[in-house]
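User: Hello! My lab partner asked me to get a predicted holo structure for this protein. The small molecule is zinc ion, SMILES included with the sequence. Please write out the structure tokens.
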Amino acid sequence: MKLVGGVARCCNCVQDRTECRVNTRAIIQGRTSVKAGRVTARAPTGTSCLRCNMSLHRLCDLPRTADLWEKVNAKRAMLATEKTKAEAEKKSAEVEEKKVASGSKQKSTEELGAAGRLK
Ligand SMILES: [Zn+2]
Ligand SMILES: [Zn+2]
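Assistant: Hello! Below are the structure tokens for the protein in complex with zinc ion.
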């Protein structure tokens, strides 16, 4: 846990003029996994400050996690769009004929494009 001050604090702590303690290791780990493409629709665990996490149970908008939130929100929006689309497709499919629709999604692995050429 690291004590941050001034503008580095999250909004809730700035507002309440309290100490803002953040788990920098969790934030670094969260950022690493986001960079590796493992973006979830929720903020990586431990990226909220201690107060938001333990007593406020609010979203913690630390300036240093703003980039993570961008990714999380984008992912969330994408999932919401996918869900709406899937539901619409499901409905029309149900009208046409009752197919067995499985909800399983295949995980697509990203290929590194540049590694194709041999020396
Ligand atoms: Zn805080
Ligand atoms: Zn906070």
